[in-house]
Structure formats: structure tokens, C-alpha cells
Amino acid sequence: MRRGSGRALPYLYVLPAFLFFVPFVLVPFAHTVGLSFYDWDGLTRAAFAGFDNYREALGSALVRSAFTHALVLILFFGVLPVVLALPLAAMSARESAPAGNALRTLIFLPQAISTVVVGVSWGWILALDGPLNTGLRALGLDRAAIDWLGSFAWALPSLGMVGAWTLLGLCVALFFAGLQQIPESLYDAAAVDGAGRWRTFRAVTLPGLKGPVAVALTVTVVSALRAFDLVFVTTRGGPGTETVVPGILIYRRAFEDARLGSAAAIAVILAVVVFAATWVINRIADRKPS
Amino acid sequence: MIAATRAERTWSVVILLVFAAATVLPILGIVLLSLQPEQAQLSGFAWPDRLDFGNYARAFEVAHFGSYLKSSLVVSIAVAAGTVVVSTLAGYAFGTMRFAGENFLFYLLLTGLVIPFEAVIVPLYVELQAARLTNSYASVILPLVGVNAAFGTFWMRAYFRAVPRELMEAASLDGARSLRILWKVLLPGARPALLTLVVLAFMWSWNEFLLPLVMLSREDLRTAPLGLAFFAGRYTTDRVGMAAAAVMVALPVVALFVATHRRFVHGMWAGALKQ
Predict the structure, then answer these.
(1) What CATH number does residue B209 fall under?
(2) Domain ranges, residue B189
(3) Euclidean distance between CA atoms B50 and B47, whole angstroms
């Protein structure tokens, strides 16, 4: 037996993971940062541009609206499912185990479905002659029947509702698992103290679910910031620019307009926003109660 | 928990059923639409007079979904296998061994959890094109294993750290014996953790859209979601065909999820809350 092999061993074990991660994720990401300081069409020589791409991006009304739309989507993808899932998880915990499991599995199902499938399916449901409008007309609400994804006012909220539909089950499942970890004795103690329903929720349930809420918010907020697939297969950013999101701009500038440096700058801004959101959510969750 | 009154229990059942229905109805609507006769123009939910699987045959043959599904299967199986192998090896080292630079390497790999793929895709395309790798399954498989290695290693490390120390003193072992311990002692018990990772990696690669969209321009290489996006964009009037294609694209992953969901969901949330 060679004695030296023990030292190198851990590195041999981690090597394969890095052989995939470094060349296909880390290095390209570093190149994106580098590329964002250049003006490049992908063919001719790249010209150093300093902060021009960033200046253009931050000054552009289109880029700003893309990030504003992403913020609106955060309300629908993140806040709405989390707020709805808290009572739903608690209610499902009161049902018998088989019934509760069946309900949670059903509500989780959209998570397993490809976003492209979700997009084309909802595209039909929300169409002018789709089932939603047929339902509205049957209720006598003819004036409420509109082309949801073609409407300047309703396209973005409609996409947001589709996102909420896909992410609700994930939040319910996470919170349900979290509820199982809260010791029954805490509820008994609250009852002894004479705490009502709302106070018990605020003093026992919510603090006990801090971890799962942080996980749920991280996943949903990041998917709102990165909503590319859903927009690409439904509205492509329209009508007008009402549903343009950062991912759509990056794709268009890089692969349609051949402005690779500009695409890279938007990608870096998006990455910074994702890092910051993840950091803030988990920072708040880690804070000790005062 | 505080005992609920009868009225409250009724209300909570009603509310739960409303949300379950809101989840299921759109899915049911698409499935029913896919079983309608070819020229049907449907504007609501309707039971078909008779089950017509003709749309499936049409989508499979004429619209090339047979070929798209094959591409997705090749990519997803390769990514799931690659992810499990590299993540298990790395998770084993990070979870059970002490070595210089351990923390630095681990956190470097974890950056993969927060780097959005949009911030990787442009140079990745340029580089893979220069290496003449675009329009190949490898151009989708290799980056997906790279991204998944971050989550996978994190996941398997958490599992290996929870294994009792006495089971192995791997740090002092040589290569052959530490591999044998991994294979014979640790992996049999790791089955739930591995299953969850396999299902997730398969599901994520099956549903990945941006990467194949950018890398694969050749029609015969298209993955299933990519094929569906192009189909829906081109044949806007063939709604029943689109519905059949959509069901076919979703079905393999939904079936995998339903088949494994009990152990999968358990392993997943137990893991998520342990972290």
C-alpha cells in the first residue's frame, strides 16, 4: 500500500464534480462578467466598452421595466403562494393522513409539469375563446371575458397567477413538513397561557415555520426573477413590452440582436439581484428573535 | 393544536377541496381536449363522445414527438446518472473526510445553487460552438451535470454527515478500502437520499428549456419541451394536437413523480428541513 495515497484521496473524490462544474458553469459565469465590459457582436473583434453596457442598461426604460415586471411576478410567485399555503398546510394537517397526503400530492402536481406544458395549456385556458371566458360568459359576465394574455392590463397578472398555480403545492408541502416538527407541548403551553388562535399562530406556528418559509421564499422569488420559459411560450414579452422579463431581454440581445456584451451586462445585474434576494431572505430567517 | 369547532372543520374541508379542484381542473381540461376528434375547436371543458387517441398517434408520428421524447429520455437519463455519480463521490469526501481547502471548495461549488443559468448561457454557447459541440446531446448534458453537481453534492454531504462515525473512519483509509466502504456500507442505507436526487435530476433535465433552446437548432435533436414550444408556435389552430403533445411531454415526469412521491416527498422535505 502506498502511504501517500491517503492525502490525495479526498481531492480525487471531489474532482469529477469540479470537472463538470468549473468548465460548464463557473468559467462561463466569469466570462459573462468579463464580456459585460465589451461591445461584441459574436463575430468581429470585441471592443472594450468600460461601463457602457451597464450605463445603457440602467438608463434603458425597457430594462427597467423588465426588472419591474420581475418584482410584480415576485408578488404572485412568492408572496401569494406563501400566504395561501400557511393556512392550507395547517388545514391539511387536521385531515386524516391519507386524505391530507392525497390533497397535498394533488396540489403539488403542477411542480412536476414542464413549464412549457404549463404555458401552452394556460395559453388555451386564457384565450379569448378559452374555457375561462366560456365560464365567465355562462355566469353572465360577458364583459369580463377578455383576451387575458393579449391585454395590456392583464397579461402580467395572468402570468403571475399561472406561476402561483405552479408553486402553491411546493409551499404547502414544505410548510406541512415544518408543522410536523413543532412540538405539541408549545401549543399546550400557549393554551395554558390563554392565547387565542391568532396569538398562538404568531407566537408558536409562525416562528416554528421560519426555516420552511425561508426555503419557500428563496425558491419562489428566484423562479420569479428567472421566469423565462413561461413568458417565452406564452406572450414572448407582449403585448407591447408589458411582460418583458430580464431572461427574455438576455435571450433577445444575445441570440437575436447579436449584442452579446449588453446581454452579459443584464445577466450580471440579474445575477446580483438573485444573490441579494437569496441573501436577504436567509439573513432575515437566521435572525434570532429579540 | 387548538380544537376546531364543527363549522370550522367543514369550512376547512371546503377550502381544501376548492384549491385541489383549482389545481386539477386545468390539467383535466387539457387531457379531455387531447381526446377530442381532430378538427374539434373547443372553448370549454367537455367530455369527448368517445376516446380518440388519434391525436396522440398524429403528434407522435407526424409532429415528431417520438423523436423529441427520445432526445429528452437520452438527456435526462444521462444527466441523472452523471449527477448521482459525481455528487455521491464529492458528497462522500465533503461529508466524511478532512482536507486542506475543504471549506473553500465546498462553498465554491455551492455558488452553483445561486448562479442563474441566464448568466452562464451566452459564453457557454460561444465556447461550445467554438468546440463544435453545439447541436449535440453533450452540449445539454455536460452543463446540466455541472449545475446539478452543486445541489447534488450539498444533498449527499448532508446525508453522509448524518451517518454515525463508527461506520467508517474513512479519512485514514487508502483509496480501495474507502471506495469499498462507500459501496458496501454507506450506499445501501443511502437509497432514499439517492432516489430523491435521481428523481429531481431527471425532472429538472426533462423540463429544462433555455439550454436546449440555445444549444440545439437541429430539429432531430430537439427535446420534448422544445418540440412542444415550436409546435405550439407554428400550429396555433391545432389545439387538440397541441393538447395531446402537451400530455405526452408532461406524462413521463408526472408518472415518475406519482410512482415515487411517497418516499420522494418524505426524503425531500426531511432533507430540506435538516439543512
Answers:
(1) 1.10.3720.10
(2) 59-274
(3) 8
What is chain B's alpha carbon radius of gyration, rounded to the nearest angstrom?
Answer: 23
Of the candidates A226, A248, A224, which has an alpha carbon nearest to the alpha carbon of residue A62? A248
A109 touches chain B (CB under 8 A): yes
Domain count, chain B: 1
pTM of the model: 0.91
Query: Does a structural domain hold residue B216?
Result: yes
Determine, yes or no, domain membership for B22: no
A46 at B interface, C-beta within 8 A = no
The whole-angstrom separation of Cα A234 and Cα A214 is: 30
For residue B267, being part of any structural domain is answered with yes
Superfamily of domain A52-113+159-286: MetI-like (1.10.3720.10)
Write the residue in A13, A103, A184 that is nearest to B93 by C-beta. Answer: A13
Partner residue facing A88 (CB), from B16, B97, B147: B16
Lowest mean pLDDT among A12-21, A132-141, B164-173: B164-173
Residue of A nearest to B4 (CA): A94
- Indicate if the pLDDT at residue B269 is higher than 80: no
Quote the ipTM score. 0.91
B chain contacts of residue A247, beta-carbon cutoff 8 Å: 118, 210
Q: Which of A3, A9, A14 to probe by mutation at the B interface, max B CB count within 10 Å?
A: A14
Q: Measured between CB atoms, does B109 come within 8 Å of chain A?
A: yes
∠ CA A61-A67-A72 to the nearest 5 degrees?
120
| Full 3-state SS string of B235-263 | CCCCHHHHHHHHHHHHHHHHHHHHHHHHH
What does the pLDDT look like over B157-201, one tens digit per residue?
A: 988 888 877 666 654 556 667 888 888 888 888 888 899 899 999
Which one of A15, A18, A24, A235 makes the best mutation probe of the B interface by having the most chain B beta carbons within 10 Å? A24
Average pLDDT, chain A: 92
B29 found inside a domain? no
| B129 vs A40: CA distance, rounded Å | 16
DSSP A49: -
Least Cα separation, residue A153 to chain B (angstroms):
23
pLDDT of residue B214: 97
- State whether residue A250 sits within 8 Å of chain B by CB: yes
| Chain B residues close to A235, C-beta within 8 Å | none
Q: What pLDDT is stored for residue B52 in this prediction?
A: 78
